[in-house]
Amino acid sequence: MTQNSGKYKNSDVEAYVLMNNAYYHYNQFIKAIRSNSVSNDGKNELLNIIDKYVSGDESQRFIKTIRSRKKLYRARIINPDQLKRNLGIDVFDVGGDYQTRGFDEGNSREAPLGMSREGRNNITGVSYLYLADNISTASVEIKPVCGQLVSVAEFETSKPLRVVDFSTDVMFDVEESREDNIALGTLFTLIMSRFFLPVSDTSEYLATQIITDHIRKTGIDGIAYKSFYDMKGTNYTIFNSNRDSIHYRGSRILMHKSVNNAFVDFNDGRILNTKSMNNKQYDKAEKNKICSNISRQLIDE
């Protein structure tokens, strides 16, 4: 998050005060969350700032439109027992070359209401569709171990979707910070970090869950934020993911190949890596052997 320098009278002191106020409001918000005292009465300073710059008249700088026909991806780990269940998973021989299918649409979309686990932006039971803008990012975000199979579903937007974009820097004028008596660039950097950084305890998700729900009520379609595990990638949490908005196009199986987050794409015959995409490590014979083994597990009842 970037803030223009501008001209200050006693600029160093004023900049320090504005930045200190940003940390104060942010820390007060986190403190209120931990004491379960965030109320919906319009008095929380941080939520009021979000209302003004994210949801209100100044919101256009945070709004991003996902174009129609944009491809997005969702990954899920395939547990061994799921190969025995009728979840859409399949392996088939196409002219001596194996192709794969991952989870079917019902198991690739978000869980039904009341059945979802807690996530970065949703409480337990509330279902949002978590997506990424490329296969590598979607796959690494679910943190598979080496050798684990991953189902990656491809979705396509059927119409433009408006999301709050927390994935890119936003410029704030010095006068705006003066008006609010807070370094807005600093404050929104702190907010964005909650969507970006890993947590050691899911209770730390409460801050993003509250902010997300606050934004969702404005009628926006979702939120975009950077991936910690793949710096090239952008993650999306989509609130309005009905089939008129996002169309399921199918799925495939990948295998997590190594500790540097490389994935074997069985269908396209390549190695996907969060740092690069190349075919140097791809071994068709090894791929067909693995696919044959998956096929045997599918039919071995």
Give structural notes:
- With 301 residues, the protein is of the alpha+beta class.
- The protein folds into 2 domains: 2-66 and 162-238, no CATH class; 71-158 and 243-299, no CATH class.
- The protein contains 8 helices and 15 strands.
- The strands form 4 sheets. Strands 3-7-12-13-14-15 form a 6-stranded antiparallel beta sheet. A 5-stranded mixed beta sheet has the order 2-8-10-11-6. Strands 1-9 form a two-stranded parallel ribbon.
- A hairpin with a 7-residue loop joins strand 10 (222-226) and strand 11.
- The longest helix is centred in the first third of the chain and has 24 residues, at 11-34.
- It is elongated and about 75 Å long.
- 39% of the residues are buried.
- The model has no long low-confidence stretch (mean pLDDT 88).
Chain-wise SSE layout:
Blueprint: E1 2-3, H1 11-34, H2 45-55, E2 63-66, E3 71-78, E4 90-94, E5 97-101, H3 105-108, E6 129-132, H4 135-141, E7 149-157, E8 161-165, E9 171-172, H5 174-180, H6 184-196, H7 206-216, E10 222-226, E11 234-238, E12 246-258, E13 262-265, E14 270-273, E15 277-278, H8 284-299
Parallel strand pairs: 1-9, 8-10
Antiparallel strand pairs: 2-8, 3-7, 4-5, 6-11, 7-12, 10-11, 12-13, 13-14, 14-15
Helix pairs in contact: 1-6
